[in-house]
Amino acid sequence: MSFVGQPFRLRIGTFVGLTGSACEAECDKTSMQVRVQRVLVLCMTWPLAACAGQQSALDPQGLQSEQIRHTLFLFLIVAAIVWTAVVIVLGVGLLRRKRAADQPLDLHQPFERRSGRVILALGIATTVVVLGLSLVSYAGQRTVFAKDEKTHTLKIIGHQWWWEVRYEADSPHQSFVTANEIRIPTGQPVKVELESADVIHSFWVPSLTGKMDLIPGQKNELQFTAKNAGIYRGQCAEFCGIQHAHMAFAVIAMSPDEFGRWRDHENQSASNPADQLGKQGEALFRARGCALCHNISGTLAGGQLGPDLTHIGSRTTIAAGTLPNTPATLGAWIADPQHIKPGNLMPKMPLQSDELIAIIHYLEQLK
Amino acid sequence: MAAEPNELRDDVLNGLQLSTQLERVWRTPSGLVGALMSVDHKVVGRRYILTAFAFLLLGGILAVLMRIQLAGPEKTFLSADKYNQVFTMHGSTMMFLFAVPVMEAFAVYLVPLMVGTRNIAFPRLNAFSYWMFLFGGCFLWTSFLFNVGPDVGWFSYVPLSSLQFTPTKRADVWAQMITFTEVAALAVAVEIVVTVFKLRAPGMTLDRIPLFVWAMLVTAFLVMFAMPSIMVASTSLILDRLVNTRFYDSSSGGHPLLWQHLFWFFGHPEVYIIFIPGTGMVSAILATFARRPVIGYPVVILSLIATGFLSFGLWVHHMFVTGLPQLGAALFTASSMLIAVPSGLQIFCWLATLWDGRPVYRTPLLFVIGFIVIFVLGGLSGVMVASVPIDTQVHDTYFVVAHFHYVLIGGAVFPLVGAVYYWFPKIAGRMLSERLGRWNFWLAFIGFNVAFFPMHILGLIGMPRRVYTYTADMDWAHLNLVSSGGALVFAFSFALLLANVVYSLRKGALAGDNPWDASTLEWATSSPPPPQNFDRIPVVKHRDPLWADSESLPVVAGLSAERREVLLTSLAEAEPQIREASPEPSIWPLLAAIATTIFFIGSIFTPWAVLWGTPPMAVTLIGWFWPTGSKEDEE
After folding, report:
1. Residues 228-287, chain A, touching B (beta carbon < 8 A)
2. Which residues of B touch A202 (CB under 8 A)?
3. Which residues pair with B472 in a beta bridge?
4. Chain A contacts in chain B segment 294-313 (CB below 8 A)
5. Residues A220-262: pLDDT tens digits?
6. For residues B418 and B416, what is the distance between their CA atoms, to the nearest angstrom?
7. What is the pLDDT of residues B115-144, one digit of tens each?
8. pTM
């Protein structure tokens, strides 16, 4: 999947061996196997790829989203029948031949009585249909919100305008923090605990399940199971201020084995810079104030206000799904974040171009 | 009031004398000051309608700006900040400055005529209400033009609207504008209830009240019960912001969800405050153009009342994704869906009426037909939104945007435009052009559906609401482009309506008293009506008086011809009880509104305005209620 403009998309297309339109065709059920294999191959590589329907309630990839689509389609069918019936009755009523005009009060008493009975019957029918739909809805709701005993639990904290993702374990050595990308194992229930650091946000990955709000002072949770490996786009659904439009994220579902390997890797502190330029970048990262807001584990950078950058180099996007993660976009972002996401909370730091290059070089190495 | 022995009564005068005499007594004083003093419900109602439509125009322009911005991916037509202000202003303007006021405005103009009285109850309060509405609306729009327009959505959720996350005055402006509209809406609601209960023409028993008046009565009750909730909410918000109370601050024992409960306890009935008057207009238009009374009169009234009651029991369906308990949410699903039953019954009654009637296809009826087609679709998508699992996907997406525009535009604006075509002859004395009317209808109907239907799909394929932009790879571009095109056509249809009104005011065919051969009392007087509405108060013996007594209506005699008087009747049977003085024109309602406005705006900037702002209000209210006494008391 891609988050952004055309160049990025073409690149994915080339990588997967598909053009944009073929990519969409690729997504139907018959070629699901092919797609899953490709995605598995690509999962740990960059750029990560999937294709159309990336944020659609109509293309469910999880147990919950599938159940919701069943309910939705049933309601749609009932609605379509009712609407068509009303329009037909209206049309026939308007077009049918009627007796020549007489006085408006010259009522058709038999018709009045007969139509009274019909209206009553339709009223009862409406009540029955509506109560039936309520029951169907409740059954669907129980499935969607069913709780599993054994789940992978992670905590998601909404910020203006990015997502903090905490994988917390009993042992602090197995706990780590990342941002804007949520990796989960396929086929196993995942529970996300939702909190907010500032205003109300809403966690929403339509391919996997419906949304749930993140509300300050309240702990909400949501449980879902991804059926297939893949990358599913999610986006904040509750208006949360000036950059609400740019508060996206990715859920990357991978096989349990791969997930385990990723988790082990993620537990480790950031790698030390390999070359002189990288070392220079690390020093500048602290000297220029970046470390006041950003944390990089294993280094002196311990800021908590912005996203954790320990493994920034391995992420697909930057700025909460706004741009693909490339040296060029990273540089553009650091040089002038207010140009890319006006109003976001990262200040513009005065940097010489060689300083900028060193910092980019350093961050790129944080895989 | 004691009758003076030598008082001039209407029974001693002949027709022409009486009409000249009453016009002299009831007319609005001439000149600018006279106009500002007017307490005639028709003058106030006309102003109200025009002002509300001016706000529709402004809100519509904002809608077009948003559709231009969203027509393609990553457009930079509006900045993020401007877009957020624009959608907030669009929602606030349409809900608070157009939809509710315009419905109440039609009621202010029509209800006294339809129940056969000379003025609305509490005419000075009525004038005050209009000025409050005007000043509140101008205040909001001036703020917007000076770049302090609110930007936190028409729903203004905390904590985003709290001082911490909106440190500018933008949210204060919004909260105070709410108070303005509450004052105006509540005042009109009280007037309508009293007018309908006490000022009906003799003989207009409860089961002879026109359906439009019934609809406005139910609406007035909804306003009275729903508005206090938002009043509490917005006052708490501004207290949190200005004097550091902590109603919504979760770190100090408050809770952000309190706002949502209070807001939606008002916000859901609000939808019906807009929709129920629309149904009243539909019933009025339908009966006239189907050439027969609406079938199931009692069913329609019971449906209106049931809708009103149920509308207070389903606010939680706006909060299904806030983590409330699941079983409770499921019960709100059932109650939300149940409101489809009374709404459905009304539709069935209208369909039966059309089926049995002999429809005359004039523009007002076209808009009613458009209403049925669009509103039923919107109602059905409402049933979907009421389901918890479906709502977790579509909540806060374009599906919901599509749904409520189908309900609000289909359910209220289509009947409203039909009502403009229907009652324009009564208000202006001239007919609107039928040819332009047909163009108006078809462009509106097609433009509306092209603009809003694709949004259902956009929501299902993942487009959230309130985003100022989206990227090209999201597959939303084509449908957005189609939608924007439809929006332009829809907007153009309103330009046609405006052109039609401007043209027909000067060149339209003269209407005469009852151009549509309608059955209700407003058509019994001339077009436009004289200041006194009726030379002699009619007596009603039938639900459709002008169809039952097409030659001449029976009338009551004995009202004063030298003072402003209305006739009070009993609540159920509308038996004459007493003659009551109706207030003279006065400048005080305007001055009171100015003082109130200074008080409200001042309090945004300093809490001290509560102290120095009250004396001017007190002075104007004393002036307003200064006991002048009637002339005979002084003598």
Report:
1. 233, 235-245
2. 321, 396
3. none
4. 295-296, 299
5. 999 999 999 999 999 999 999 999 999 999 999 999 999 999 9
6. 5
7. 999 999 999 999 999 999 999 999 999 999
8. 0.92
